[in-house]
Specification:
The chain has a single domain (14-149), classed as Orthogonal Bundle (Arc Repressor Mutant, subunit A), CATH 1.10.10. 60% of the residues lie in helices and 7% in strands. It has 7 helices and 2 strands, in the order αααααββαα. Helix 3 crosses helix 5.
């Protein structure tokens, strides 16, 4: 059996089902992030760094710009420039300045970054198990979440 929100946060009543749904989404988001962060910690990266590495792997062999990374990031509040610099220091990406316009940089995942993601792929597949729903339920959940953002 699953833990209901009201028991998890020890709240007997909500103003209405909409308030409960919002609380449930926020609580579930934090639950999933907490579980995922335990995996990222093992590899000394953050979930935002993981997100950027996956964006760059999907972009490969083409380089990405900072704007492309910002557009595609899941966490829009992240400081993409700082994340890219940290990944560069870890040698997980390569960043080169445009010779014509120094404000533009080409960013590509390094071999070391690809190796890290390959190692983490098995771990990240475990994330799927965090969502204990059938395939049909997951399809429905995705439709409902997409509808919610429309």
């Amino acid at each position: 059996m699953y833990m209901k929100l009201d028991k998890a946060i020890r709240q007997k009543e909500f103003q209405n089902e909409y308030q409960k749904a919002i609380s449930n989404i926020i609580y579930t988001n934090n639950y999933l992030i907490g579980k995922m962060n335990l995996v990222f910690k093992q590899y000394t990266i953050t979930r935002q760094q993981f997100n950027v590495l996956r964006i760059l792997r999907g972009q490969k062999p083409d380089p990405a710009t900072m704007n492309l990374i910002k557009e595609r990031m899941l966490d829009k509040m992240s400081d993409a420039s700082r994340i890219v610099e940290r990944l560069k220091k870890k040698k997980l990406i390569k960043k080169t300045r445009n010779s014509i316009d120094k404000r533009i940089a080409s960013i590509i995942i390094s071999k070391k970054g690809l190796e890290l993601l390959k190692t983490m792929d098995t771990e990240s597949e475990k994330f799927n198990k965090l969502i204990a729903l059938s395939k049909g339920e997951v399809l429905n959940l995705n439709k409902l979440l997409d509808k919610l953002r429309d």
